[in-house]
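User: My instructor asked us to take a sequence, write out its structure as tokens, and then describe one feature of it. I'm not sure where to start. Here is the sequence I was given:
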Amino acid sequence: MEPAPRVVVRGEATLRVPPDHASITVAATGRDRHRDRALAQLRERHQLVTSLLARFADLVTEYSTESVSVHPVVEGRKGITGYAATVSTRIRMDDVGRAGEVVAAAAALEGCELWGPSWQLDRDSPAHADARAAAIAEAVTRARGYAAAVGSTLTGLVELRDVGTGGSGPVFMAASATMRSVTAPAEPELDVVPAQQEVHGAVEAVFTLSPPDLEAI
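Assistant: Let's start with the prediction itself. The structure tokens for your sequence are:
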């Protein structure tokens, strides 16, 4: 018997969905001509970050110390003119709708710098499965179009795989907005809008076809 004809297609889909969580990094810094005074100043300012975490305990999902730095400040020929000490804390919030409250409070901390927020999807977000399903549906639609063009119909699925590898899932991009804090006596009012995330799914599929009707083309 003649082998059944086959069609090989690629299906892709990109979805735009709300993020699952937001992250910011707050760095408390102490600077002084003397090392011990710089460290003392750092402890005071880092305590402000600790108080922030306690104040927003209902919003902060988790936090961790990202880095600690203590180093001399060198100014050209003057040599060492002082010392700088920094502790950076990464903060995660799952309630993205209220992330702006924490961002505004962090921006008002004296002697601290702020980076973020960074918006992201969780690895187990249903959006990944939705993107894969949409990519498969697009592959089926494309295969049916090719089959119809030669007077055939789809009769079976031979193979279905993720594009590029033997089994990796779709990738996602994390959009972000970056802001640096300024020292302020009161918390600023910030309109923080979560950035939509793009989730991409791509598959390759091989289908068998009924015998084509080439005379009808």
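For the description part of your assignment, you could build on this observation: The first helix runs from residue 35 to 55. Try explaining in your own words what that tells you about the chain.
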